[in-house]
Design goal:
Length: 130
């Protein structure tokens, strides 16, 4: 299952956006309200959305300054969340979140709505990048 967030344009440099997303603690600022968030290490955090099981994400890869890849730490729900970061101008950047998960048809049907809303909220909240 592949999902895409709307493209978000930020008045920040590509490097600033990349640095923000490479800091695991900053994902707490991007999460929807009332989301459980717990930093486990510098490359791992746990979050829990209402009505969904808690998920542990690992920072899998960072390609300066164009891509940040997070992935599920467990094989039970295998997925990756990639932030594609594109420079438009020196201080203007576009970010799009891409979700790729391997789910059976039943599971995909159940999680598509909540995950689409989740990555949409993460994208909207990127205004906090300072």
């Amino acid at each position: 299952m592949n999902l895409e967030s709307p493209v978000k344009t930020l008045d920040k440099s590509q490097e600033e956006v990349y640095s923000f997303l490479m800091n695991i603690e900053n994902f707490e600022k991007l999460m929807p309200e009332n989301t459980k968030f717990e930093k486990i290490s510098d490359t791992r955090f746990l979050f829990g959305l209402k009505g969904m099981p808690e998920i542990v994400l690992d920072l899998k890869e960072g390609i300066p300054h164009s891509k940040v890849v997070l992935g599920a730490a467990s094989d039970k729900i295998p997925f990756e969340l990639t932030a594609d970061i594109k420079e438009l101008e020196a201080s203007k950047t576009e970010v799009q979140l891409l979700f790729q998960g391997e789910f059976n048809a039943m599971m995909a049907m159940m999680v598509k709505g909540p995950i689409t809303k989740f990555i949409g909220t993460l994208s909207e909240n990127m205004d906090v990048i300072a």
